[in-house]
Specification:
Layout (H helix, E strand, L loop, with lengths): L14 E5 L3 E5 L3 E6 L2 E5 L4 E2 L5 H11 L10 E3 L5 E3 L13 E9 L7 E11 L6 E2 L3 H18 L2 E2 L2
Parallel strand pairs: 5-11
Antiparallel strand pairs: 1-4, 2-3, 3-9, 4-5, 6-7, 8-9, 9-10
């Protein structure tokens, strides 16, 4: 367990552990991540930093370690030059634009801080053949969640050190 820093790395004022209000990040306009009550060290001026230098990596590992229950199956990526997504049930191509979105909620706990909630909003795509709803591939979901989380951290100017 890391020890609490004594002073802010930017202004040298004393820091204390706090839970941040909801912070949001978005990737490609349709992938959204909201972190509620995330722990961070905050000084009296308002500078924020992660609870440890390894927080970002620990966050991603904790978020992805217990695969969250997905609200729909993932589509199959097919094609040699132009990759397209296809229905896992009937094989027809999924519509290129998202029909609606689904939400997944997780509790994440990182050493050095209290548990916090992470809400992930994912686009759902409708099959042109059978009408079933699908998510994109697991790899695309993981990549988008990581990027949206990074945007959320930047939105409140969280510093790793």
């Amino acid at each position: 367990m890391t020890s609490q820093p004594r002073s802010c790395s930017q202004c040298r004022k004393e820091v204390s552990l706090a839970s941040l209000d909801a912070i949001h990040g978005e990737e490609a306009g349709v992938w959204r991540v909201t972190l509620n009550g995330m722990p961070a060290y905050v000084c009296s001026v308002g500078h924020k930093r992660f609870v440890s230098p390894e927080f970002g990596m620990q966050y991603i590992e904790a978020l992805l370690s217990n695969k969250y229950a997905l609200p729909a199956p993932t589509g199959e990526k097919r094609g040699l030059l132009r990759k397209r997504y296809h229905c896992a049930k009937c094989g027809e191509q999924l519509e290129p634009a998202a029909a609606k979105s689904a939400r997944v909620e997780r509790k994440v706990e990182i050493k050095g801080g209290a548990p916090f909630a992470v809400e992930i909003e994912l686009p759902l795509y409708r099959c042109g053949g059978c009408g079933a709803e699908h998510l994109r591939s697991s790899e695309e979901i993981t990549d988008a969640v990581m990027k949206a989380s990074a945007h959320a951290f930047r939105s409140v100017e969280l510093s790793p050190i």
